[in-house]
Fold each of these.
Amino acid sequence: MKISIITLGCKVNQAESASLERRVSETGHTLVNVDADAYIVNTCAVTAEAARKSRQAIRKVQAHGKPVYVAGCYPKIDKTEMETLGVTPLELSPLSELLSSSGEAGGKPAKRSRALLKIQDGCENYCSYCIIPFARGRCKSLPIENAVAQVERFLSEGVKETIITGIEIASYGKDLPEKPDLSEIVREIAAKVPKMRLQLGSLEPRVITREFCEAIQGKVVGKFHLSLQSGCDSVLRRMNRRYDTARFTDSVTLLREFFPGAFLSADVIVGFPGETDAEFNTGVEFVRSCGFDHLHVFPYSPRPGTKAAEMDGQIDKSVKKARAELMRGAEKPV
């Protein structure tokens, strides 16, 4: 069978799609971009705009008249919409069973120099703008020995760099009996697979302590993506983020101390409900003071089912667009 996989959204979705691609190849089926016998759309629904793009991708492949199955967050939070679209969640589909059985002949995964290792799923932070805890559920961590085995397999396939990712990797291990933390899994992988170059995915700033930096120093590359979201404390409180700008500054300072010359990037949301001009300007100045090498700036997009979508003070799209451009200007000059 010829199968096409379309991926939207975050690195976790990319990691899950890579796992699906492996299953397709290992069960003797063929990955294709066009003229497939079945399509899998790995969806994102973190914002209303992401959900719209997922619907658009689903309808586009439905035009081929072949079976379409959906994975990712969208089918987990809106089953009625899936029925309206006439698609089936992948785990409930006959294709899921097919990918668990043997195909005509075992295939080989495509060679790659970089791989994504998903060590964790789920989130329990319940930020006021985010639907992900409702879609992904509670924290679920990959045991360290399983993670090591996957990285050893990556190395055997010629992979040179592994990006350690998850929905909220700062929560890694809290659900496991031994309660290992993120630094422990990094140390174990580095010790057992020393030839593999390791990079961390998006980090919640509270995980970055002096002890954490000491534990991972020399074991991961100096490239870090931080989940900031706002550079204004009053906005962070409305977002239900669990740190303030002072704590975030500590994280940046520690990373630069232990990883001199580190490349630092961050996510920032502008136009959050109730964000005043003064709050926005405070945020811009804080972001500028951090000296980020790159910024991912997102105009706030209301997601039905979240607290923020019901907040007063929703901001006009034109204002959010203008603020996004101004915030992008706070990135460190090249």
Amino acid sequence: MSNLVLSLQEEEQLNEILSNENSDHYVFIFKHSTRCIVSSKAFKALIPDWEKEGKIPLYILDLLSYRSLSNEVSRQLKVVHESPQLLLINKGKCLNSVSHWRVNAETAFEMLGEVQS
């Protein structure tokens, strides 16, 4: 994985992501189920494009290995859990999210462009 594609495995990482309340630091969290075919297809489409064109960090959260962390993401960001799910985070809040077949790099880049313009 590139330096912009990271694994989200610990609550401390989540707290650090959400503590950037006073900056224009954007990140995405991709909630990924390794047993779901839709999620696997999203992962295979998203990661290569992100490694080529991504401009901000993309944290991958394996839902099966880190279920309690996934629940904490949903709780702290006040979003309903879906899988796969892509969350755009800034200043400790979820600005936008997409799920299922809409999870891809093109949609992510559009979401980011909308909030940065």
